[in-house]
Amino acid sequence: MQLQLAVAENLFPSPDHTDRHKPGPSPKWVNIRIPCGCVFFRLMQSETQEEINQARKNCGYFFMDGWSVLTAIGKETFSFLQTQTTNDTLQLEVGQGQASAVTDRQARLIANFSVHRIAENEAWLLSENSKTLYDHLESYHFREDITFEKLDQSLLALQGPKSILVLEKIFTTLPEKPNEIVRQDVEGQSVTLIKKSLTGEEGYILCISPEGKDEFLKKLTSPEIQPAKIGEQAREILRIEAGIPIFGIDMDGKNILPETGLEHSSVSYNKGCYIGQEVIARIKTYGAPNFALMGITIEGPISPPMNGAILLGDKKIGIVKSSVRSATLEKIIALAYLQKDHRSPDVEMDVTIEQRPFKIKTCLLPFYQAATRKEHSKKLLNEALQIYKEQENLDKPIAILREAIDIYPKHAEAYEALGVFLAKQDKLDEAIALMKRLTEINPQEIMAHTNLSVYYMKQGRIEDAENEKAEATALQFEQAVEKNMAKKLKKKHEEQKIKEMEEKIVMFKKVLEIDPVDQVANFGLGSIYLETGRYEEGLAPLNTVVEKFKDYSAAYLLLGKTLEKLSENEKAIDVYKKGIAAASKKGDLMPLKDMQNRMNQLLHSSP
Fold it and tell me: Which architecture does CATH list for 61-226?
């Protein structure tokens, strides 16, 4: 790689920058322009890597230049938005939000944004292209009681798994679900907080006055956690790894909304009419768009050109959009629109892009999937235990365990480990307070009462210790009784379910006597046979479905599962491959991802 870089630098001593963002005074990338003007190589330096690590493992911040909030206020705010936007705004309660979009009559994208119900008759519309959104909404606004206005606010993004630990020191209430919104006065300054990920990690957006933004930024810094500033290059890598497209870069007014992947989060198929609804619904019902956005990885050090056509032989099968060298995957990744016959994931292809050969591999978005709070807390627990094994200094493991509990307050194992370590340091009062906190969070946690009994005994508080031991014993007995009752109830439900299934089997067989290839009857039989363990009997009806209805992706999934139960793993893999291809063409993401995961597990478990 160094040799390639040195040669390129000798040939082209004055590389130019082709990124979306303008380079700063101290560039973090070295861009090398190839003579044909269609590809370039990027070298990421350690500073950008460190910023990415901060966002992925800790907490990072940046001001969202170019973003803005459009307010909509009036008695008819949500009824008007319901007629214009792709999602169901009437379902929003105060404090809730949703991704949404507006399209023209051909379902071509005009703007994408998020809607947040901050008051009974007030909505906030968060967008990167608010002027286009404002112009569109005003063009359909006649006599409705609604007023649109651009809000004068600075938008500060706080992203990363430890963002919540920073914000808990300032806010009394935090939004819990994506796009939820809360407003609070902080030392006389009104601050609005929206839960939104811009990096793939858990994240928030703070809306603050421009005059007070620098002062407020200081409030976010604490001795324990100091959010790191995330530069533009790092943000671009984080965004693309998270599979987040940007209007004007990865999509524009030429794209119909189903091409962009936004329909999975921004469209309600149950609401009333809106502009573009007929086209979007028709695509959902009868198939998939010819081209749709997904991910590709590229071998080698050279990035494909923006908007470069992807050719397989002489056939155009796609077009490249944003691309970066991924810090997580350690290879070049790109968002690309691919033709529906080539959207199966994990397919390698030798293609040409602007007359230059590339080896690409298709993949589902996002490239990177962030850990949940529970998963992150568990990782911290394991880290603390490993440190304790290697060195018996308890201070660092204790600090890590406190962090694990702050991130996921219901992590009982982290409480137990922290309690044990505190007890080892003779900090019994703190260990007792910790276990009491756990009993408040989960009164049925037997381990908390058991540990309290042990800690009280060490302090000589015999009566308290006996009481906690009795509480633990009583909980064990109650849970055993509940478990036994649940077991009996489950058995009763299973017997009732089997009876109902037998009745359905009779019904489906009668239908098949009239029409042997009936889709619903064959699929229903295959589903029941799989659920009841009659795997051999399920093969025939499921094979009938996939042979006669080749785009029915759910049938491939059931057939593959049935073959797995029969230990026919190679046949199951073959079925999953065909099913993934069918699901890719139709855009059936749920069965596609399920089949992809199951196939990968089978491939990895093969000798």
Answer: 2-Layer Sandwich (3.30)
**Neighbour-count burial for 259-280, b at 16+ CB within 10 Å, e otherwise:** bbbbbeebbbeebeebbbbebb
373-479 topology per CATH: 1.25.40
Segments of the chain scoring below 50 in pLDDT = 1-44
- Tell me whether domains 61-226 and 515-605 share a fold: no
DSSP class of residue 364 equals: P
**Where do the domains of the chain lie?**
2-59, 61-226, 373-479, 515-605
The model's pTM is: 0.81
Listing DSSP states for 10-47 in one string gives HH-SS----SSSPP-SS-SEEEEE-TTSS-EEEEE-HH
Q: Does 1.25.40.10 match the CATH number of domain 515-605?
A: yes
Q: What is the per-residue DSSP string for 211-260? A: GGHHHHHHHT--SS--PEE--HHHHHHHHHHTT---BTTTB-TTSBHHHH
Sign, Cα dihedral of 128, 132, 136, 138: positive
Looking at residue 108, the DSSP 8-state letter turns out to be: B
Q: Which of 181, 191, 178, 177 is nearest to 219 (CA)?
A: 191
Q: Which residues contact 92 (CB under 8 A, 6 or more apart)?
A: 78, 98, 115, 117
| Element (DSSP H or E) covering residue 554 | helix 553-565
Over the stretch 517-570, which tens digit does the pLDDT of each residue have? 999 999 999 999 999 999 999 999 999 999 999 999 999 999 999 999 999 999
d(CA 78, CA 530): 45
Question: Would you state the torsion angle of the CA atoms of residues 429, 435, 436, 441, taken in this order, to the nearest 10 degrees?
Answer: 150
